[in-house]
Design brief:
With 56 residues, the chain is mainly α. The protein contains 1 helix and no strands. It has a domain of 26 residues. The longest helix is centred in the first third of the chain and has 28 residues. It comes from Trifolium medium.
Amino acid sequence: DFPTLKTKARICDEDSKAKSNYYKDLNDRKGKGLDRGRPYESKGNGNGGKKQGNGQ
């Protein structure tokens, strides 16, 4: 009957929102650890590891 269908649809919507919020929160927390640096951050003298020639 209609009330049962309406109740099941509401429960399904709530579950869908909860799942969506869970994965959004998981994605927001990803990569925000204190021990993670940028993978492209150069370490050293800042020239990307390339040796400069003397122009000749």
